[in-house]
Amino acid sequence: MKVMTIFGTRPEGIKMAPVIQALNRDPFIESVALNTGQHKEMLDQVLELFQLVPDYNLHIMKNGQTVEELTSRLIQTVTPIIQKEAPDLVLVHGDTTTTLVGAYTAFLQKIPVGHVEAGLRTDNKYSPFPEEINRQLVDRLASYHFAATPSNKQNLIDEKINADHIIVTGNTVIDALLQITEQPHLFPAALKKIFKSEKKTILLTTHRRENLKDLQYVYRAINRIVKENKDVQVVFPVHKNPKIRATVRAEIGENENIHLIEPLDYQDFVHVMKQSYLVITDSGGIQEEAPGLGKPVLVARNTTERPEGVEAGTLKLVGTSEEKIYTECTRLLVNETAYKSMAAISNPFGNGEAAAHIVSCIKNNIFENISEGMLEETLERI
To answer: Domain named UDP-N-acetylglucosamine 2-epimerase: which ranges (predicted)?
Structure first.
């Protein structure tokens, strides 16, 4: 059985690495990995970390290209590779442009698609943008759905996806997280110096398109927190987006307790998260990872496709409100009971065995069920 995995961004690389490793280990499966190169340097670091060498690397990244241009180029370059390889199954992950194009081009060749991390929803098509619509479209195109949680499965069932084709696996990001945190690690000198301090460390990340106009309020809250809590420092890997960097320069400037650093490779980032006291982020994946390390997460978004974390108590939505971020962060810094009530909760997103579960399902269940009938069912849904 030939399984092609299509990915192209750093988050996809992290979350699909355990799956590709498991596929490569299985003698029954011929594994083909296609890296679109939607991200370049950041993804190359991940591939090296997990010792993965893709069969195809398209180097699709181009400065200043629009989503429309990226989509067009991906369709033109991915299609002939799928035609050449003719896999039995194509696996895509999550909600990126690579994900959408990978699923769509496979569908056009009538090749079944398996969607890893299926069923995430905010039900607001502009939040996150364009990811929410990407994942909804992919779930219409897919024949098999690997949902991280029972809530994700229920979202799919509510959308009339056949429950027999949905498998709850946990999230593969926990597999990757545990694999990396179990390895010994030495920080580079700059990070080592930061963590010599006994100050409580807040890890801050911001990058969402829909937050760009409001990020100044997040940074103002951070300034207030650090000013009022002398035992607190912030580690802030600043996204390369020029608009974000301009806002950071305008709002944060120089502060010896706010460490503005370049984006980290995955290994360093995971260990920074492990050393941190709490996390403030608008990222999706960090909402799953940080609870796995016992770190409370304040989500700088008004919606989340990971409500399981909010319901469990590992996440708290604070939006981009300066007052709400300031208040909730201060509460966790000064109220030990409030902090422990979040930090001690079991991670609702998995136990590190998702990739093995996915590959087992592919080999033992899906392969024997791949048929024209399932493809016709997919055609009918679209």
So the answer is: 21-363
